[in-house]
Task: structure prediction
Amino acid sequence: MSPVSRRVRVVAAVWLVAAAGSILGLAGEAWLRYQRLQDARASERFRATNVFFANAMELQAGTHSLWAERWQEYQPGAKVDVVVGGERFVVEMNSRGYRTREFAVPKPPGVVRVICIGGSTTVAGRTNQETYPALLERKLAARFPGLRIEVLNLGVSAVTSEYWHARLDRVFAYEPDILVHYDAINDISWRHFPRFAAAHRMRGLAYRSLLLERLFPFPVEELDPYLNDTFVTLGATARACAARGVAYLGATFAAPDPERARGDFRRHLDHNTEFWTRRFPLRSYATWAAIVRRYDRLYVEFAERYHVPYVLAHQQLDDPALFIDVCHFTPEGIDRLAGVFLPPVADLVEATPAGRAGRREAR
Result:
């Protein structure tokens, strides 16, 4: 065989392999896009039958009319009252613009005041009385009869740990004895992913291909430097509390166990992941769950290193039946979240001057 013939055969073989690879790649992309469409349809079915997700804006106090400045401050006295699917959603802001009871400043003598801060997972509930801070207050009242305990919900949908650190002077002005902080998703989605996307533009463009995203999974560990910025902020918040004599309690972040999610809800989680990662396209809930698990692991390391009291919320709240999406709870889940915080908050209540005085009186 002549050298020219051999070269022709090599070129032909390479072309055939390349053509076959292209065809397989296009077929794989088409199949994944079909699956993505099926996920979207499954999510629509879930949303149509789940009154809590269908009314998520009311449940999470995100309705447009509630805001003085969207995703920053609620309008004092704002109210939403709707009945859908047999469920009543009532969101009422007090005179200070928080979804909580009216409260006095200065704090009345003998009152133990717990303040809960965070995003939509803090402010969420069918009614003000069904948010986790309100439920926590009732559980604490049952545990400490005779002790005056207030649990105030200062949650604001969509805000990050930076938001709360910048507003600590306002929070401290309300004279908390204990500050409870539950959040993570807003930092990951709205604080870190935009910066990660800006630093990895080519990867973001490549991930427009579902096949490339599947072949080259998201490198979860590369988010560590960004997540560390959250821990820097949380550490500064905890130190500020210590300097003011306020007990600080943090938590890992809960999410549905991807191994236990089934049917339309499992596909709904994949579809919902796109909302939270739209600054950097991800379509797999398994990937999102891995990011949250990474956050939780690093959070525990941070809390142990700096002696920050915390709750392992992610270990106690991972049943998919408790969730309506990748992070928000059903009413049962909200009640369970209050129960997760109850033991450590009760311990902190007992350590306050009013709590110690109550124990002496009980004896």
Summary: The domain at 51-60+96-362 is CATH 3.40.50.1110 (Rossmann fold). The mean pLDDT is 91.
